[in-house]
């Protein structure tokens, strides 16, 4: 019995005695679902205990979850903050309890000593890449653009709008004629696109810029129901590179997407491990890479690979 216990020791050593609280926004998009899947995989691979809280996209639920994690004395907190403001008080409570907080995929307007690090893409850059794609694709031709914004007040909605506008500024042939939030969901993307089509007339809309693929996929349905060809009558560029975006591009129903990795947790947990082990302080921003995909890529093959990854 002793021999078998000793034999198991190395495995026991691998299982850390850390407990982490993760306050996730919800499951508003395929990308969000993938981030949850990957985060749970990354945590399990490190033998960490996870307390998971889904906020159904409500900030008050995230704040309650953080207070619960603090009361339970977790070793660290991961949070994807649904909006950018209103976090100072609860982050100060975590700081007072000596619990490090790491931000995933969105940032907050709070003093950066209130969180250990933020693992995000360059959200402004993503918007710029989308805008530059349209600048290049239109090559000087006039284009009336409609925009589906992400969740109001969220850092991706603010930054992706800024980046896109920066890229098209100075190109007077490109004009955003309608812009409204679709809250990052397929259903709202469809509803708002229907209102754009009704207000403008499908023949007067040249392109859609959606802050995420899920709103674009919803909009594609609305465009088809209006008797128009998405990807041809109305060009579509979005962000996330979820499987259904690759499929839409493969089917010539969408034109471009910018990849956002769902694995924010890996870099976050590596930074946390170093911090807890010997106090190594990570940079305040750990940036993940972005990549443009267009019809020039083998989107069908990429779809086949990605569809099994928890989206
Ligand atoms: C961006 C992330 C966004 C995704 C959406 O970093 O916060 O939230 O682009 C998700 O799909 O809803």
From TrEMBL:
Residues 1-14 form the signal peptide. The gene is ytfQ_2. Keywords: Signal. PANTHER family: D-ALLOSE-BINDING PERIPLASMIC PROTEIN-RELATED, GALACTOFURANOSE-BINDING PROTEIN YTFQ. It comes from Pacificibacter marinus. Its main location: other. The lineage of its organism: Bacteria, Pseudomonadati, Pseudomonadota, Alphaproteobacteria, Rhodobacterales. It is found in: Cell envelope. The keyword Signal applies. NCBIfam families: YtfQ_transport. This is ABC transporter periplasmic-binding protein YtfQ.
């Amino acid at each position: 019995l002793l021999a078998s216990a000793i034999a198991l020791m190395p495995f026991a050593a691998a299982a850390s005695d850390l407990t982490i609280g993760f306050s996730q926004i919800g499951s508003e998009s395929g990308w969000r679902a993938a981030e949850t899947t990957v985060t749970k995989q990354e945590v399990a691979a490190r033998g960490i205990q996870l307390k998971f809280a889904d906020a159904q996209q409500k900030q008050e639920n995230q704040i309650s979850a953080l207070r619960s994690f603090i009361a339970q004395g977790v070793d660290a907190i991961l949070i994807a903050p649904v909006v950018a403001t209103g976090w100072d008080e609860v982050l100060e409570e975590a700081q007072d309890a000596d619990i490090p907080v790491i931000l995933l995929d969105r940032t907050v307007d709070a003093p950066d000593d209130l969180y250990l690090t933020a693992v995000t893409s360059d959200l402004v850059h993503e918007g710029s890449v989308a805008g530059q794609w349209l600048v290049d694709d239109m090559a000087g031709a006039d284009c009336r653009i409609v925009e589906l914004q992400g969740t109001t007040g969220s850092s991706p909605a603010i930054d992706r709008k800024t980046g896109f506008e920066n890229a098209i500024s100075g190109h007077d042939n490109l004009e955003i004629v309608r812009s409204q939030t679709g809250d990052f969901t397929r259903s709202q993307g469809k509803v708002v696109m229907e209102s754009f089509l009704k207000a403008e007339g499908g023949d007067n809309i040249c392109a859609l810029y959606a802050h995420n693929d899920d709103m674009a996929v919803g909009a594609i349905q609305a465009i088809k129901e209006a008797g128009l060809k998405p990807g041809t009558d109305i060009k579509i560029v979005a962000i996330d590179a979820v499987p259904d975006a690759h499929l839409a591009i493969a089917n010539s129903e969408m034109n471009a997407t910018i990849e956002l990795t769902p694995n924010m947790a890996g870099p976050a947990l590596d930074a946390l491990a170093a911090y807890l082990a010997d106090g190594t302080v990570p940079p305040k921003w750990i940036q993940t890479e972005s990549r443009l995909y267009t019809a020039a890529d083998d989107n069908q093959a990429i779809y086949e690979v990605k569809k099994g990854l928890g989206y």
